[in-house]
Amino acid sequence: MQNPVEYFRNKNVLITGGLGFIGSNLAHWLVRAGAKVLLVDSLIPEYGGNLFNVNDIKDKVTINIADVRDVHSMRYLVQGMDYLFNLAGQTSHLDSMRDPYTDLDINCRAQLSILETCRKYNPEIKIIFASTRQIYGIPDYLPVDEKHLLHPTDVNGINKMAGEWYHVLYNNVYGIRACALRLTNTYGPRMRVKDARQTFLGLWIKQLIKGEEIKVFGDGKQLRDFNYVDDVIEALVCAVTNEKAYGEIFNLGDSSPISLKDLAELLIEINGKGSYSIVPFPPDRKKIDIGDYYADYTKIKKTLGWEPKVSLREGLTKTLEYYRKFGHHYW
Ligand SMILES: NC(=O)c1ccc[n+]([C@@H]2O[C@H](COP(=O)([O-])OP(=O)(O)OC[C@H]3O[C@@H](n4cnc5c(N)ncnc54)[C@H](O)[C@@H]3O)[C@@H](O)[C@H]2O)c1
């Protein structure tokens, strides 16, 4: 794998969703790489944005509290940028069912308008879009590769699918260099742990640290794969700087899927204490659950040389340490 650090020194880099979980971890990486970083985030309270996420780099980045749905702001903000990490999104699957139009506006319509703005005002920009494994829906086979049919089980999945394909389309038709990564469950410091809007794992971590019981839905046997955030950042910076990635879509994933029950037990073991119970799925969650999922990430491994490096045990240990120390900024 090439060393992506050299691509970013003194480069202008825009991160939409830059105060969120993945965006803020990426901002730390880019600051270390010597980039000039602009973070755009709406800080809508139900989403993952948190100013504390950039507390230690706040003097080294520019922060603009703006909404990606605002075409006038975005027109101004994309100009002069070398790279765009397009991470702003409504991430809650349940919220997308309760309020489908907001999800449509952010995850679909705003994506098209960001691309239109780039086409008109900065066609040289290189873009990467954070897509999601959710767009596969209930897997027809495992592990899921990129050829798997897309049949999302919720509104969020449909809108993210459209957002993803607009990026590929603008690459293919207009020559704007863009690619997408289909992220699986990502975890690590700076994730939203207040509730399960971003991921159930965040809520579990909060519950564990607060001495509350973890609730595992269903029978606990559902298999999932997890990526530590540092591995995801490596994939993002590697893809956006590689000619071979433009116009492509890649799965991220991990080759050691784990059942949710085993995950709860591992967390409790690492924490040294805690408890969990297996409870029936709330009906609204059951209707959109995808069951077992883990990805085949051979394509990105072969094309870009990416593979996850951080084991689940190591990543969870670091994550728990972070929230023991800084949890009060996130509860
Ligand atoms: N974390 C995961 O497991 C995961 C999995 C698959 C895909 N993704 C995708 O990765 C991206 C980043 O996710 P994350 O986990 O960091 O979530 P996050 O909620 O922490 O980050 C998203 C950020 O986008 C911001 N945002 C939302 N709507 C906005 C708008 N209209 N204008 C400006 N900013 C807005 C939020 O305030 C938040 O800070 C999202 O697009 C998400 O769909 C994440």
Q: What's the end-to-end separation, in Å?
A: 38 Å
Strand order of the largest sheet: 3-2-1-4-5-6-11
**What is the N-to-C order of secondary-structure elements (H for helix, E for strand)?**
EHEEHEHHEHEEHEEEHEEHEHHH
Uncertain segments are none
Helix-residue proportion: 25-40%
Q: What is the oligomeric state here?
A: single chain
Rg on CA atoms, Å: 19 Å
Strand content: 15-25%
List keywords for this structure.
331 residues; alpha/beta; 7-stranded parallel β-sheet; 11 helices; 13 strands; binds nicotinamide-adenine-dinucleotide
In words, what does this structure look like?
- This protein is of the alpha/beta class.
- The protein is built from eleven helices and 13 strands.
- The N and C termini lie far apart (38 Å).
- The model has no long low-confidence stretch (mean pLDDT 96).
- Nicotinamide-adenine-dinucleotide (NAD) is lined by residues 16-17, 19-23, 41-44, 47-49, 67-69, 87-91, 106, 130, 132, 183, 185-186, 192, 198-199.
- Nicotinamide-adenine-dinucleotide is lined by residues 16-17, 19-23, 41-44, 47-49, 67-69, 87-91, 106, 130, 132, 183, 185-186, 192, 198-199.
Task: Outline the fold blueprint.
Elements lengths: L11 E5 L4 H12 L3 E6 L19 E5 L5 H8 L4 E4 L6 H6 L1 H22 L4 E7 L22 H20 L2 E7 L1 E3 L12 H10 L4 E4 L5 E2 L1 E3 H12 L8 E3 L6 E2 H12 L4 E4 L3 H4 L11 H7 L7 H15 L5
Parallel strand pairs: 1-2, 1-4, 2-3, 4-5, 5-6, 6-11, 7-10, 8-13
Antiparallel strand pairs: 9-12
Helix pairs in contact: 1-7, 2-4, 4-5, 6-8, 8-11
Nicotinamide-adenine-dinucleotide binds next to helix 1, strand 5 and strand 7.
